[in-house]
């Protein structure tokens, strides 16, 4: 399929190349290749896109990114630097690249202001945030965005009519020491990423974020961070147990309704037809988006799988690009051959 739109595609700042290489050593089998690919916003990505039929890549700063910086002033300065950097790169290839804003999430008003700047001045299509924001004097505190303090930020997302991609980050501090240090191979895609993001977004559901902001759109990668597979059980306990005990005061609708109206999932890093078919049954084709998770995953694996997975042509077109065109209002998007 030509003209696919991919939206969990990471980049890094070249000035952090040595740190990027060190970080890649924890998960990449070829650190030199990974560092070259994640620092490139040009020929390497464009060549892959041409070969594998990707028309538009929505770029975002690599995890853990600004969410790993617990000094609020430093985090904000880096977010602005990243946003201005990628804005210039996108300008060079506006028909092939777009961007999500990078945000410091120490302060909701500051995050809202930077999001507005990125959308109105740079034309960014939303924001990507790497789960909770590290905070506190030693970085051991975590800021969640699922309480009323963050309504000013969520209201800005609604007003600008742009989504937020809630992406994982690695566990840190005492959480790492208590839960993950003795089972480190479970950090990342095997378990910790899904655990962190699913806790956060279900906190948003149960704490009434989507009831207060009914137009808010939030994207979850990796086919929903395990949530679709527990949909029946979550719905059963919310509706038949927890709401009887008081959950209904803050969570007005069912989990299925929030997925129908507020939540999206992507195929990033999860190239299983069996799993996709399960998500089609639980979530529906209208709420699923194609993505790669490059360069942590490859264009080849993602695109060869998606282009050849057994599904209807209607669903392939929806997931591959049509849903993204609607969500991001890409009316001028031209690369649309089937």
TrEMBL record:
InterPro entries: ACMSD, Amidohydro-rel, Metal_Hydrolase. Gene3D superfamilies: Metal-dependent hydrolases (3.20.20.140). Residues 64-330 form the Amidohydrolase-related domain. SUPFAM superfamilies: Metallo-dependent hydrolases. One of its GO terms (molecular function) is carboxy-lyase activity. Keywords: Decarboxylase, Lyase. Pfam families: Amidohydro_2. One of its GO terms (biological process) is secondary metabolic process. PANTHER family: 2-AMINO-3-CARBOXYLMUCONATE-6-SEMIALDEHYDE DECARBOXYLASE, AMIDOHYDROLASE FAMILY PROTEIN (AFU_ORTHOLOGUE AFUA_7G05840). This is Amidohydrolase-related domain-containing protein. It comes from Penicillium arizonense.
